[in-house]
Every structure is written in structure tokens, then in C-alpha cells.
Amino acid sequence: MKKLKVTLKRSIIGKPKKLRKVVYSLGLRKINHSVIHTDTPSVRGMIHKTSHMVEVSEASEE
Predict the structure, then answer these.
(1) pLDDT in tens, 21-45
(2) What residues make up the domain containing 52?
(3) Side-chain half-sphere CA neighbours of 46 within 13 A
(4) How confident is the model over 2-16, as pLDDT tens digits?
(5) Cα–Cα distance for residue pair 9/12, rounded to 1 Å
(6) What is the 3-state composition of the chain as percent helix, strand, coil, each rounded to the nearest 5?
(7) Do 7 and 54 form a contact (C-beta atoms < 8 A)?
(8) Is the pTM of this model over 0.85?
């Protein structure tokens, strides 16, 4: 299964509470913090919601 590396690039300060919850549910805590997720429709939806704040790249299969 394909893996995605998601990195938080913009601060969540001053953003709506709903958007902050989406960022936290992705597992992102600080700026430049990265996590690896499997490529599922729910993760893609969360990335789409926060596309202006996160950077996404394909992670290597490990």
C-alpha cells in the first residue's frame, strides 16, 4: 500500500477550531513535524482540508 509523508508547514495559531482538530488528528504537533500515513480516502480528505498548511510527498516503502 502507498505511504504518504505529511509535514506541517504553517502555524495553526488563529485558525478555526475545526481545522486545528483536523491537523491534530493527522498527528501533527509543531511546524516541520512530519508523519507517515497510508494512502486512504479519509487521510486524503484531511489533507485536502489542510492543503494550504501541509506539504505532502510520497514516502518510501519500508
Answers:
(1) 999 999 999 999 999 999 999 999 9
(2) 3-58
(3) 21
(4) 999 999 999 999 999
(5) 10
(6) 30, 25, 45
(7) yes
(8) yes
When divided into structural domains, the chain yields a total of 1
CATH number at residue 20: 3.30.1390.20
The CB-based long-range contact list for 17-23 (8 Å cut-off, 24+ gap) reads 19/49, 19/50, 19/53, 22/46, 22/49, 22/50, 23/50, 23/53, 23/54
- CA gap 48, 62 in Å, rounded: 25
Beta strands 54-58 and 3-8: pairing type?
A: antiparallel
